[in-house]
Amino acid sequence: MENPVNSLQKMLDVNIPIVYIDDYDFARIDEIISKACGSDIVEWNPATGVTNFLSKCSIRRDASLNDFLAEKYADDIESVKPDYIVLREIASYLDDPQTISLLTHIAQRKLYDREYDTSIIISDYGLTIPNQLLPYTSILNIDIPDEADIERLIEEHLEANDVDKEKFTDKDREALMPSLRGLSSFEIDRVLDMAISVNGTLSDKDKEMILQQKKAQVKKSGLIELVDVKESLDDIGGLNKLKDYLKDKSMVMKYLGLAQKNKIDTPKGVFIVGMPGCGKSLCAKATASQFGCPLLKLDMGSMMGKYVGQSESNLRRAIKIAEAAAPCILWIDEIEKGFSGIGGNNDIMTRMFGFFLSWMQDKTSSVYVIATANNADNLPPELKRKGRFDEIFCVELPNNEEREAILKVHLNKRKQIDNVKNLAPLVKKTDGFNGADIESVVNQSLEELFVKELQNNNGDKGDIKVTLTMDKLLEVATNTVSISKSCKPQIDKMAEIFKDSKFKSAT
Ligand code: ADP
């Protein structure tokens, strides 16, 4: 990875009029800009107007972007100093024809007027460069450091802090490296400084602190939710093939270093398509427990921002955050909401999808993706092709054996398993029920018995202990409108689609 300061310097040296830095870490961007450009910089941003770039003090709060740009395009060369203009968070201003025209004028003047040396640096996240500006603009992407970069940063810190290198063993290095993956070099600098200032050295014990820092970052972002996980694979009734598959993957992820030495690819992720309420979300949660790593949930519905351009940058940002939190599981819930019906003429959606696919294809980090979808009907075929997800599983309504297993899970959870011995009649009665329906039968039966006991008991209510009966379960099941009845047309259609698909059955 090339140092971004050098990249920016090179772009400015070859007279590129506009540089677009696409990143959200403004503190880091400012550091890169000041290293590359010195102090001869003025900034404009929507919050403080014309601003001193270094002190961030407002110089003229009420100056509009267009007034500021018009001034910088002035004829009088002396008055346009300093040479570097930073425009921060102006993506949403780039649909104003006057702003675009002013930027084009400045860019052209920089190219053709030898006396005029003003360069523009736009810093924002979300690529929204208007077509008219494309010929004058270069994009600076700030990549996250790879293994070699991380090693170099560690060495630099050991040297700068006079740490006895003998004490930093290969074992320490091996333990620290994966936890530093996904952080930007700025963030790596910060956590290494922190670790060394606390202990005077670096060791494998700093891993915990680094992981805590990563978690804090995820929380701050607001785009991704850190899900608290209590479920394990034992809480899932049925879906045995999928559970076995996930157990195998967890072994590879746990011994990733060893797996890589044996030339085994890092698992990319699994795509679980299927009927609602049949345990897809449950699988995502249980997998996190099985893998022993945090579960980050990215909700496709809420990611699709009000402005489509925002959705694209949201996705890029969310993925950066997940990489920063690796090793982790990135659960993309309702992926169909983001990527159904791609194609057409929605450029941004298509670009977003392309970005996601190439990230999945090239991904080497230990972010294990679990995508879940109810509807596989309209999903683009590229998503289902090999090379993206390691496997696609299809979850259907539970069969007899599975319904029995699900009943056992929920009876066990409520400590009622010994009260209802022969489950066969209930298994039969719940044909066409999904896992959520079955759970609701167990819960509602208990609740009804509990309320009845309360009503009948005039004495000490503290003694009430509900005992579930098969009769009650059958009564509630008879009165339950299962998903196959309440959503019959949709469920029948889904079953047909799954039958025709080549997805692996989770059962
Ligand atoms: P979805 O497939 O829509 O993601 P969920 O995993 O959210 O469904 O299931 C909803 C609830 O139904 C779960 O919290 C769980 O209590 C119950 N459930 C669904 N499937 C199963 C299953 N196979 N085993 C045990 N409980 C299940």
Compact overview of the structure:
The chain is α/β, with parallel strands linked by helices. It has helices at 4-13, 26-37, 65-72, 97-112, 147-160, 170-180, 185-199, 207-221, 240-254, 256-261, 280-291, 300-303, 308-325, 335-339, 347-362, 381-384, 400-413, 424-429, 435-456, 470-479, 483-486, 488-500, and strands at 18-22, 41-45, 49-52, 58-60, 84-88, 119-124, 137-140, 225-227, 269-274, 295-299, 328-333, 367-373, 391-395, 504-505.
Secondary structure tally: strands:
14
Report the portion of residues in β strands: 5-15%
Ligand species: adenosine-5'-diphosphate
Please tell me the overall pLDDT.
87
C-alpha geometry: elongated
Biggest sheet descriptor? 7 strands, mixed
**What is Rg?**
29 Å
Unreliably modeled segments: none
Oligomeric composition of the shown chains: single chain
Q: Summarize the amount of helix as a percent range.
A: 40-55%
Structure description:
The protein has 507 residues and is an alpha/beta fold. It has 22 helices and 14 strands. The protein has helices at 4-13, 26-37, 65-72, 97-112, 147-160, 170-180, 185-199, 207-221, 240-254, 256-261, 280-291, 300-303, 308-325, 335-339, 347-362, 381-384, 400-413, 424-429, 435-456, 470-479, 483-486, 488-500; strands spanning 18-22, 41-45, 49-52, 58-60, 84-88, 119-124, 137-140, 225-227, 269-274, 295-299, 328-333, 367-373, 391-395, 504-505. The chain has a 7-stranded mixed sheet, sandwiched between helices. Strand 3 and strand 4 form a beta hairpin. It is elongated and about 90 Å long. The two termini are 44 Å apart. The structure holds adenosine-5'-diphosphate. Residues 236-239, 276-282, 372, 406, 409, 435-436, 439 line the site of adenosine-5'-diphosphate.
